[in-house]
Amino acid sequence: YCNWIDDSYLLMGKAYYVQHDFFQARQNFEYLLRQFPNEKTKYDAMIWLARTHNESRKYKNAKDMLDLIEADRDLPKKKVGEFSATYADYFLKQEMYEESVSKLRMTIKNSRRKTDRIRYSYILAQVYEKIGNTSKASETYGNVAKMNPPYEMEFNSRINMARCYSGTGN
User: Fold this and answer.
1) What is the per-residue pLDDT for 121?
2) CA 149 to centroid of chain Cα atoms
3) I want to staple 136 with a disulfide (CB 3.0 to 4.6 A). Which of 2, 7, 32, 128 is the partner?
4) Dihedral angle over CA of 123, 125, 127, 130, nearest 10
């Protein structure tokens, strides 16, 4: 027995995922879940397996995995942001924009890195714009511009904020 075997399978699964070999990625994540159900990498494997199903357009399998994770009361607090981002991606890939808003908000709230919060806030603003809520979209684009993002993102935020301007207010 080696302490790093489960970490190695997780890393191999992620590598296959990045290479777009979703079949091999799924095999690695499922093997990890079968062989090491009590290890700390279990939640990572479950989230990455849901991502793999999303990318493979197997939305029913992704939904089942996401519901399983959501029902688990032992999900570590530091994994909530990654989980909700995966759930939001599930909704966005199926163009279910209204449902993705709450998951994106949870993702922003639980993201640990500032760059991730900026990125997800920008995506949330785009979703608001897509569903026709231009006032919320403009407000969210303004918040993104105030978060000190990279130049390109700030520029695009200000352009989109102006595009969403409804003619009332400042």
Assistant:
1) 97
2) 19
3) 128
4) -130
Smallest CA-to-CA distance from 137 within 101, 99, 87, 86 is with 101
**How far apart are alpha carbons 131 and 17 in whole angstroms?**
31
Query: Do residues 109 and 135 touch, judged by C-beta distance below 8 A?
Result: no
Amino acid at 87: Y
- Rounded Cα–Cα distance for residues 75 and 139 (Å): 32
Q: Find the Cα–Cα–Cα–Cα dihedral 112, 116, 121, 127, rounded to 10°.
A: -120
Distance CA 53, CA 25 (A): 10
How many CB atoms are closer than 10 A to CB 92?
19
Separation of first and last alpha carbons in the chain: 64
- Whether the predicted pLDDT of 39 surpasses 80: yes
CA distances to 17, 30, 52, 63, 87 from 22, rounded to whole Å, are 6, 12, 6, 17, 18
**Which element (helix H / strand E) includes 72?**
none
Provide the residue count of the chain: 170
Global confidence as pTM: 0.90
Cβ(157)–Cβ(138) below 8 Å: no
